[in-house]
Each structure stands twice: as C-alpha cells, then as structure tokens.
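Subject: Protein record for review, amino acid sequence with backbone structure tokens
Category: Structural biology, sequence-to-fold work with a learned token vocabulary.
Format: Residues in single-letter code; tokens as whole numbers, each standing for a residue.
Body of memo: The sequence and its backbone structure tokens, given next.
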Amino acid sequence: MGKLRIVVAFGLAMVSLAAILWCVVAARPVVAPTRPAGPEVPDTWELTAGRTAGEFAAEREATTEVVLGRAGRADLTGVPAGRIDERQSQVKVTITHRLRMRAADELAATLRQGSEFPGGIQRFTDDGFGAIKVLGAVLAPTKRLAPVLTTSAGHTTVEFRVTMLRQLQPGELMELAFRTPTGRPLIVLRRAVTVFPGEWTPLRVQGVRPSREDPERLEFAVGYYPVSVTLAQDSYGFPDREEEDDFSWATALGIGTAVVLAWYVLRAMGLAWWRQTVNREFAIGLALAAPTLLIPLVVKEFTPFAYVILFGAVPALAVWHAGRVLPTSPPWTVREVLGVTGLGVLLSVGMLSWSWLHEQLPGRTLLTGAAIAALAAAGSAVGFSADLGIRMVAVRLAAFAAGSALALLALALWARALAEGVYPPDSVRLVLSLGWALIPIAAVAVATRQWSRRAVVVAVVASFLVQGWPTEWLDAGSWSLPLATPGVEPKLGDLPLSPLMRGVLGLLLLGFGLLVLRLRRFGGAIQAISLPAAEGTMISGLMVLYLTPRGSITIADSDVPLPLLSITSIVAWLAARWLLVTPHPSVVEPTSADEHRELIRAALHKRLLLISEQELYRIGRGKIGAGEMTMDDFDERRQSLEEALRLHGRDPETAFATAAGCPPWVNGMYGFVVSLLLSLPFAFLYGRPNGVDLSSFVFDTRYLLALPAFGFLFGYFYPRIRGTQPMTKALYLMAAALATELSGYLSALVEPDIGGLDKVQVVAIVGGEVALVCIGLGLYWEWRLMHLAGEPWARVRNIRSVRSLATPLLAVIIAAVTAAATSAAGQTVDRILQGDEQVTTTSTSK
C-alpha cells in the first residue's frame, strides 16, 4: 500500500507539471502595443510629408556653412571661470544650415507653424541635414537660434544657426565630422558645404573630393555618406620629435589604491576566515562570477548570461554558503511559511490575470490548467505526507504545494512572454529583485551568525529600492504593456542604470554594509581595537568612502565612466595608519564604570597636586623675599607635595586616554553621530543628495558620511589614537582629516585660471568644517569622559579661564570665517567644492 501511494504521488506531480507545460505550449504571443487608433496629430517637424526623394531633390536646395573663430569675451560670458584654461585655445564654431524651397511647399508651411519649438529644431537639423560633431572639450552646451524664414519671388529660405564653444590644447587637431542624415526620405540628395577655417588649416578631408580649396575657404558637396575634415592650428608648429611620457599618475595611483584596498579587504576577513574550506570555496565562486559581470561592456549579445549569473547563480551561491556556515536551519514557523505562500499566490494570480487580460491564454484554458496544476500538486503533497499520520501537516503541505504550482505556472507564462518581447515592464525588475534579495539575506545571516526575520524584510525592501524608487515602480503602464515609445534610461553620470548595473551597484553597497556589520560584531569587546581584522575593516570602509569617480574610458565604442581610484583614498589610508598607534603599556583599560571613575578621580587628584606644586614655586619666590614665608616652611610644603606625587606616580597621565569601560562600537557610534551633527551645517554647500534608486542615492551621500567616518574611527579606536588627552587626540585627528579632505581639491587648487581668493575661500571652507568637527568632537569627548566618571566637566575645563577658552574660541572663529567665506564664494568655489559634473569628453553638435 505504501509503494502504491508513492507511485500515485509521483504521478500527480507529473500531472501538475504536464498541466503547466501544456499552458506554456498553448500560450499565444501577446500583441505588441500600438498607438491608439483614431486621427493622429500631425508631426509638425515630419520630414517625409508623403513624397519621394526625387521630388525633394528637384525642388529643394540645402547649404551648410561652418565658420571657425576665436571665442571672445562675450561668447564666454556664461562659461564658469574655473572651466576656462588660458593656456588652451577657446574656439567658437558657428554652423548655418539654409534650406531653399518653393513657397507653396508643404514643409515650408510646417516649419512656419513651429509648434515643437525649440525641441524640434535639434531633431529637424540632425535628421534632415545630418549631425555635425566637433571633437574637443566642451565649454558650454550647444545653442540653437530660432529658425528664420524668408519668402521672396515665390521661394522660401529657412535658416538654422547653431553655436558651439570648444577648448583645445596647443597642437591638438580639430575634427569636423559630418554624419549621414537619418530622416526618410531625404530633404535633398546633396547639399553644398562651405568651411571657413579662420585661424585653422585644413589638414585632412576624408569621404569627399573638395570642389574648391583655399586657405580661407573649403567647399565640397555631401550626400548620403559621412565626411570628416581635420584642421590644425596655424599658430602651433609641430616639432620633429616629441618626448613620450608613458608614465601616468592616474594609472599609478589607481593601481596602488586597488592593491592597498584589496590587501585590507583580505586582511579584514582575518586568517581564521580563510582557514575554513567553505569560505575559500565561496571566495573562488565569487571570483569566477565577477568577470562575467563585465561581459556586457564588451559583447552586448551575452548580456542575458550576465543577468543569469548576478540574479541567479550568485544568490544560489550565497544561500548555499550560508546554509553550510550556519549551524542551524532558518527558524521559520508554519504560519510564516504559509503567509509567504499566500503572498506568492496573490502575486501569481496577478500575473495570471495579466495573461488572461492580454489574451496570452483564453480564460477557460487558463482556469483549467491552473486548477489541474494546483489540485494535482496538492494531491501529490498529501500522498507523500500521508504516512506521517498528522492531518494538519498534510493540509499545510498541500496548501504549500498548490501555491507553488500556481507560482511556477505564472513564472513559466511570464518567461514565455519575456522570450517574445512583450511583458509588463516592471515584472522583470520584480523577479530580479526577489532573486537579488537572497544575497543580502544570506550575507546578513552569515555576518550575524543567525537567521533573522527582520533581516529578510529589510533585505527584500532594500532590493526593491535598489531597482528604483516607488515612484518609478508605479509609472503609468509599468504593470500593463511596454510603452510604444520606451522612456530614457536613467544614468549615474554617463553610466546607464540598467537593472544589471543597479544590481552591481547594490552589491557594492552591500559590501560596505557588511564591513560595518563586521565592525559591529568585533566591537563588543575592548580587545577589538588590537585586532588586525578590525583595523583592516575600518581602513577598507574609510578608503571606499573616499573613492571618487573621475574620468571615463571607452569600451566597445561606448563611453563608460569608472570610479577611478583617487589620491584621496590613498591619503585616507595613510592618515588612518598614522593616527592608529599601539597603546603605551602603561595605559590601563578600565573594565567597568567603577574602575573608570577611580582612574579619573586619581587623575584629577594628581592634576591638583601638580598645579599646587607649580603654584607653590610661583608664590614662594615672592613670599620668601618679603619675609612672609621661611625656607623651612617652603621645604616642608614642597616635600609633602612631592611625597603625595610619589604615591600617585610620576608617569604621564593616561586616565583620559582609555575607552572609559565602553565597547569600541558604542564609542564609535557616539563619535559618528556627534561628527555628523557638527558637519550638517556645511551640507548646504554641496546640495541635497539625490538618485533614482537606493544605490545612486547612497553614492551621492558619501560627502555627508566621509568626515563623520573619521569621527567613528576616533571613537572606535580611541585608546590607539595619537595623544594622551581628548583635545590632543582631536588635534591629531584634525590634521589627518584635513590632509584627506584637501587632497581631493589639489587638482583644482593648482589650476592657474582660478583666482587666489577663490582658492583661499575653498581652503577656509574645508578647513573650517574639519576644525569645527574635530575640535567639537574633542570637547564633547572630554565632557563624556567626565560624565561617565560622575565628575563635573568644570574640573578639567573652567569656562572662566581665558586659557581654557582658547581652543573653543578658535573653533568659533574658524566657523565664523568659514561662513563669511561661504557667503562670499562665487560660482568657481561652488564648482570646486561640488566637482565639475561635465567631464571633458568628445561632444556632438546636435
């Protein structure tokens, strides 16, 4: 009887699978969306007009004039001063398109309406005449004047004028690329082009034979083919031999930073982690998967393979690793499993409803297939669990199996729609998010050594946010059919934020979060400050925060920005290593609040004796000379003070250099929060962070977290920071943080076109912020140590003493000067502080 039950159970499982396959095979392709029926609004800039190319050629004439000249002061008025380099040449390129046609031409009437001005001008000129690219550094966006129509003697002439500003280095060649017109049919078959080179000499003409060549004029005709003209500067003489400098500081710093960062990441894991076989296998798996994520940059046809690796193989590897590392299985209750199953059923019903509404399957076929699949799966589960003899267990397994069958059917029909290219746009992100969420769930479980329900919820929500904000998820039509005209893909700089790229950025964000979790796990005991793994984790996180994206590279004919490893990250590493020193053996760490209180009181008593001894020598000279004190009285008081000091020891005071009996993580969080609060007033200089998803938002928020990260380092490793008192440690911290912060502006501060006042203002802003944060943190830490000891702060810093007010007064003065400099700072200072968003790249005349 038992064998028969097993056979029946397997048979029902096969029936359920067969029903799912039958639905997939019977599914019909979903009809792609089209524009709504009815009278269409005519496109006022339409180039076709229902006529043939021969008619265009016979009735219309087109000419193009390109004038090269030196950009004057009036032309450069709107260009930020910091972008202009006086050592280079600023060039103004003026392009004039003229189109002559009969006055009764339909295109003349269309252009005369101009309902899509100004956006339609770019499309008309680029599609009709062909885009003209001018290679060189962009000084300002391309400007286009309104089209000018002139009608006379039965003909209409339309003139389009385009102005571009470029900056070229001495000896750099300028290339004018005349691209092929893309409008169909063509406005004209050929057009006459005239180039007035001015202070430039035509060097190469490719793709056409000029009809006229003069030093002041170059004429040729272009048609349906690309043409390029290369020009050289008249004032530059090319040497016979140029010294080649193959050394690149950017490359050297990038390689050096990558090596240092990789070393500290490996060190952060610790030797104990690498000794475990399961961890080494996991690292090898990640190392094999990482290169596949770069495939889309080289061969775009293999992009789906990268998606499978990132959203399928890597999550499976993470879950497998967590299952082997953690000693217990996830403690999910039956109610939680059934709740998740219910959510999956609701989602599956929604997807199946989409298949029915868009006629992927007839309603009767869909209901029949879903019912057979669910009932057969439930029956199979009952057959396999009947020998347990517990009715509720069999019912729960049946419900779980039925829900799983519906989910599998919905997923199979969705995959069929995906293969045919018509599917709900956000359904892909939904599936990818649910797959990617397994990575943070497993990672947090391994980091915390336990499965957490809260971590699952947070990981799923974070996974959705990595793929876009809720407003993006709820766009019109995102859960119906793809739009007839796809929208523009958002970008991070010049990097298109595809779901794959968002997943990669999410992994980087997750990696940084895991570093913080690792510090949290280490930071429960004071011994963590001496662990090489904790030090490596801290320095790795600090270096990541100071990585700055600068520049771009070209891969597979596409401009790809890279987070080039900058000198700021290197300086952050050196500053952290300089700050962290091995504590002196005489430093005794208190293990409790009572011990800390005793140490502080002993230190205060010792300070009182030292001050009393100094006061005795100061007043003793006058009183002995005046006869108010004898030498015996002086020696007696001196000996009593020295005896008291001998009992307390002559060693340097170390009570204010301890962790005060608090764990490193607690001290680090206090340092981070105080530093963040002190640096918030300066946040308005950089603007509010923004981003289209969680990863890009956090990436844009790094400038708010970098300096507070030094505060976290100060608190976490406080006993190891240079100095023996809170204020001396804070001054050392200020030196390290100031060097790191200013290193990011070195390239801007050495530019000769930036005025000295602007540079002073930048240094004042950065220096004022660092001083305010570090000195404020030192004062707070001094108060905190006294507060934990139950002593008033006035015993170490008397506000009535001018000397004790010197440090806070300095902070206030610096902050006031910074505020004044900020209000006086102009556009150049804003550009230096915020960074120049427009990278010097090849630009297109649009």
Summary: Residues 540 and 741 are 17 Å apart (CA to CA). The mean pLDDT is 77. The two ends are 79 Å apart (CA to CA).
